[in-house]
Design a protein that fits this description.
Blueprint (H helix, E strand, L loop, with lengths): L3 H12 L12 H5 L6 H18 L5 H5 L1 H10 L6 E5 L5 H9 L34 H14 L7 E6 L6 H10 L7 E6 L10 H10 L2 H17 L4 H19 L4 H4 L3 E7 L3 H11 L6 E6 L7 H5 L29 H15 L3 E5 L9 H6 L4 E3 L4 H13 L3 E7 H4 L3 H9 L6 E5 L16 H5 L6 E3 L4 H11 L7 E4 L23 E4 L4 E5 L3 H16 L3 E5 L2 E3 L3 H10 L2 E9 L4 H11 L5 E7 L9 H7 L4 H10 L1
Parallel strand pairs: 1-2, 2-3, 3-5, 4-5, 6-7, 6-8, 8-9, 9-11, 10-11, 13-14, 13-16, 16-17
Antiparallel strand pairs: 10-15, 12-14
């Protein structure tokens, strides 16, 4: 569904003379018809298009600007969509979307019913794989390369584009390890924007680069290898030995080595990632080489927009801005409740000042979860471990084993990647690690890869865990305070993206009894049980339903999903025949399921209506719109209450 302003914007695009080349490129096939000398102008227009669009429709800014030349070169050289390009991470791919048939609808990016925030195979045949999280490109692309070989599609090229810190994820190295031992012709492009691998330059390195990418050199090398295979002189093991010898010789000449050559993956680079013609030349020369290979390019995040080049973190996703002055349009928040993440960040610093055993851990999101507040005040007590969620949890477990109290903050959907680490490295040993799940529940425009939909359901079955969700900011502070007290064991606190409800949020600390819920309101006709901040929405719906229907509705804040407040649930089971459960998480296996299990186990027979996320992946869009679509807004809850 396009909004009226989006339609006007699309019409305006066609009339705009500033995109003379870009508006003629409906598909990459159109791009490939251009002479190479036109590519720099395509890059200029593509970069300007991204700046124009994101200045009024916010999204991930700096990363896509940094790969404009790479995007153009890839689609110019490779026969997409037959050839596969796997992006990692997906917020690099805005230019890719614009060049692959979505130029005129790019103004709907991240909007409800508009373009997806990240590449999605459901949206376009050019989007080869889902990539909302990081570090999966090499594994997925390797699978595609092996499939192409097995299917006899020997002319199909597969390219993994990994960057923006994704190489720090363990899955990337698992993929590299397998690529080095599995027959394939995969090309890996490492987009190094100074967040992954240090620069490695020098005259001899450039000489070897030019030599190895020479078309004549590689033709001779390929013919000789085919001849030696035919004569029985060369086999797969000897070929690997020759590559190792070649890599050793290169390492000796340039006096350095890299991990890729150590894995028998041919390495090329580094080269300038903003020279589109040279990039296209290099890609043409290496694309048909046999065996796995890696091209290392250097780029600048935010390239072409001065403020973004100078402050990459701020301009990763800057919101609305003035494209002429570079001034970010910041909404006045005076008098508004704080963001939950800021309550977490400030409270963590307060607690750390009182308890010298507290440390903070985050996988590459100190500003996103506000752990940068602790890191700025106490640099030696905050740890950013890179895009490595599993490591973050096990690292925290190691510190807890020897007496520290780590607050490990990971977005709810990213914690899914560390599930075994929670079980094996924390829960079994009953270690006092505080797992703070930011972005729990519906998160909005980032869509299904980022919604924190599953944490209540996936944490609930794990023994030894305490699982809690605060009703408001005071509750978050008190849960954090409680979690760092002695002998509390593994403690999970989940809270949503966005603002709380209390302007006066800073309160004194009070211990909360583990597994103890609260009755927020008396009633006699129906019981509503909520967990977390969605209870505030339920409170409004209850007030309205009582006023309009004359019902008397009790409201309980469960507070803890594990352990359950059995005393409170017995009270509800004995006194109510109608129960409504409300949670900002999936209904399958979540809080409502826990209530049903308790009632059945204790032979209570109320009729229970559950409100929460349906058994499907919820699309992207503003949180309020998604809650409405799922029947979780005030109106949806009200309708259930008055019709029950």
């Amino acid at each position: 569904m396009l909004f009226l302003q989006d339609i006007y914007h699309i019409i305006g695009m066609e009339q705009d003379t500033s995109y003379m080349l870009l508006k003629s490129l409906d598909t990459p096939e159109d791009l490939r018809r251009l002479e190479a000398d036109k590519l720099p102008e395509v890059c200029k227009e593509l970069r300007q298009k991204i700046i124009d669009e994101l200045s009024r429709n916010p999204g991930h800014f700096g990363s896509s600007l940094g790969v404009v030349e790479l995007t153009v070169a890839l689609h110019y050289v490779f026969n997409t969509p037959y050839d596969r390009i796997v992006w990692d991470v997906g917020h690099q791919a805005y230019g890719h979307k614009i060049l692959t048939g979505r130029r005129d609808t790019f103004c709907t990016n991240r909007k409800l019913h508009g373009l997806c925030p990240f590449p999605s195979p459901h949206e376009s045949e050019y989007d080869t794989f889902t990539c909302g999280h990081a570090s999966n490109s090499i594994s997925a692309a390797l699978g595609m390369a092996v499939a192409a070989k097995k299917n006899g599609e020997n002319n199909r090229h597969v390219v993994a584009v990994i960057g923006d810190g994704s190489m720090s994820g363990g899955l990337a190295f698992e993929g590299l390890n397998n690529a080095s031992s599995t027959p394939n012709n995969l090309l890996i492009i490492l987009n190094d924007n100074n967040m992954a691998i240090d620069r490695s330059v020098g005259g001899m390195k450039q000489y070897l680069l030019n030599l190895q990418m020479s078309e004549g050199y590689n033709k001779i090398r390929y013919k000789l290898s085919k001849m030696f295979y035919k004569w029985g002189i060369l086999n797969e093991e000897r070929r690997k030995s020759l590559i190792r010898f070649n890599n050793s010789l290169k390492s000796m000449l340039v006096q350095q080595q890299n991990v890729f050559e150590g894995m028998n993956i041919r390495y090329f680079g580094p080269i300038d990632g903003h020279d589109v013609n040279n990039l296209a030349r290099v890609l043409k020369e290496i694309k048909d080489m046999q065996g796995p290979k890696l091209l290392h390019i250097h780029t600048t995040k935010g390239k072409g927009f001065g403020p973004a080049e100078k402050a990459a973190t701020i301009w990763h996703a800057p919101g609305i801005f003035d494209k002429e002055t570079g001034e970010r349009i910041v909404i006045d928040t005076d008098g508004l409740p704080p963001l939950f993440q800021d309550v977490f960040g400030n409270t963590l610093l307060e607690l750390a000042q009182q308890n010298d055993k507290i440390v903070g851990v985050t996988p590459a999101m100190p500003s996103g979860c506000s752990m940068n507040i602790l890191m700025k005040a106490m640099p030696d007590r905050g740890f950013d471990v890179g895009i490595a969620e599993g490591h973050a949890v096990t690292f925290s477990g190691g510190m807890a084993k020897d007496g520290l109290i780590p607050f490990c903050n990971i977005y709810s959907s990213f914690m899914q990647r560390a599930y075994d680490n929670v079980i094996h490295d924390v829960a079994i040993q009953k270690l006092n690690v505080v797992l703070c799940l930011d972005r729990a529940g519906i998160v909005g425009e980032d869509g299904p890869t980022h919604h924190g939909a599953f944490d209540l359901a996936y944490m609930r079955p794990i023994p030894n865990l305490t699982v809690a969700s605060p009703y408001d900011e005071h509750e978050l502070r008190n849960l954090m305070y409680t979690a760092q007290l002695p002998d509390k064991g593994p403690f999970v606190i989940r809270y949503p993206r966005g603002r709380g409800v209390l302007v006066d949020w800073k309160s004194s600390f009070e211990e909360i009894q583990i597994g103890k819920g609260r009755k927020l309101k008396d009633g006699k006709d129906m019981a509503v049980i909520t967990i977390g901040p969605i209870g505030n929405t339920a409170r409004k719906a209850i007030t309205r339903a009582e006023a309009e229907s004359k019902m008397s509705i009790a409201h309980y804040d469960l507070r803890f999903l594990k352990p359950l407040d059995e005393e409170m649930l017995h009270e509800i089971g004995k006194n109510f025949c109608r129960i409504v459960t409300i949670e900002d998480g999936v209904l399958k296996g979540g809080m409502g399921s826990a209530i049903l299990e308790f009632m059945a186990d204790n032979r209570y027979t109320p009729t229970v209506r559950r409100i929460g996320l349906p058994d499907k992946f919820v699309e992207h869009g503003p949180v309020k719109d998604l809650h409405r679509l799922c029947g979780m807004d005030e109106e949806g809850i009200y309708k259930v209450l008055v019709s029950f």
